[in-house]
Amino acid sequence: MNGYKIANPTVLARIGREDPGFIDHVVNKKADIIRVYLPPDANTLLSVTDHCLRSRDYVNVIGAGKQPELQWLDMDSAFKHCTAGLGIWAWASNDAGGDPDVVMACAGDVPTLETLAAVEILRQHFPELRVRVINVVDLMTLQPPSEHPHGLSDKDFDVLFTKNKPIIFAFHGYPWLIHRLTYRRTNHQNLHVRGYKEEGTATTPFDMALRNDLDRFHLVGDVIDHVSSLGSRAAYAKQFLRDKLLDHKNYIHKHG
Question: What is the largest CA-CA distance in the chain?
Fold first, then answer.
C-alpha cells in the first residue's frame, strides 16, 4: 500500500448466501488482530461500528443485513450488551431464579429474529418450560481467553450456558465454526447448532432460513427433541410445526 500502514481496517459485510465462509476465513487469522461482530439490530450496529472505528491495529468484521428489521434494545442496553460481547436477554427469558430447561443462543440478525420467534412458539405450547435466551454479538467471546483476548472464562461460560442443559444455537454462518470455537467448553456435547448449509437462492429472508433449517419451526423442533422432560406431551406441537412447514412451502410455490 505504497508504504502506508492500514491502522484500522473495518469490513461491514452482508454475510449471507454469497459467502458465509468469510467469517471462517477471518477466524483463521491471528487472534491478536481479528474481531468478528454480529449485531442483531440497528442500535447494536451503531455501538459496534463506533467501537470499531475508534479502535486501532485490528481487523474488524461486522456482519449486518440490508433489510428493515425489528429493534430489540434501546441505545443504553445496546451499548452494555456490545461491551460485554454476549449476554442473557432477560426480557426474552423466563428462567430467572432457577436453572433453565434449555438455552436458546443466537448470533446474527436473522438468527436472532428466528430464535425469539421460536421462544414465542414455545411459550404458547409449553408455558412451564424455562427458557434462557443468550445473544452473542462478539463471536470471539465463545473461545476461551487462552485462545482469544475477548474469550469468556470457563467459569463464566458455564454459568451462562450451563454445564448440562441443551443449547440450541442459531448462527449466521456455517454451523461447524461455532463447534470449533466452543469445543473445549464443558457443555459442548449438548450444543446443537443451526446455520447455513448451502441451500436456497434469491428468495425471501425467511425462506432462506427455512431452506437451511434455521427457521423458528426447526428451532422449536430441536428443543422438543433435546428436552427429554417434554416427552409425549410434545406430539401436538410437533404436528403443529409440520403443518406450518407445509403451509410455508405451499405459499412459496403459489406466490413466489
Answer: 67
7-21 pLDDT per residue, tens: 556 555 544 445 678
How do residues 207-246 score in pLDDT, each as one tens digit? Answer: 788 888 899 999 999 999 999 999 888 999 999 999 999 9
Which residue, among 251, 210, 184, 36, has the nearest Cα to 113 in the 3D structure? 210
Average pLDDT over residues 121-137: 97
Residue with cell 446443537: 192
Domains identified in the chain and CATH numbers: 10-255 (3.40.50.920)
Which residue did the predictor score with more confidence, 62 or 12?
A: 62
Given a contact cutoff of 8 angstroms between Cβ atoms, the answer to whether 215 and 204 are in contact is no
Beta strand 59-63 with 10-13 is: parallel
Phi, psi of 54 (to 5 degrees): -90, -15
Given a contact cutoff of 8 angstroms between Cβ atoms, the answer to whether 151 and 145 are in contact is yes
Q: Is the pLDDT of residue 4 over 60?
A: no
| Residue 191, SS3 per DSSP | strand
Q: What is the DSSP string of 122-146?
A: HHHH-TT--EEEEEESBGGGGS-TT
Grid cell digits, residue 240: 403443529
For the entire predicted model, the pTM comes to: 0.90
Q: Where are the beta strands (DSSP E) in 129-215?
A: 131-136, 167-171, 191-194
Q: What is the DSSP letter of 3?
A: T
CB neighbours of 136 closer than 8 A, spacing ≥ 6? 38, 85, 86, 105, 106, 107, 142
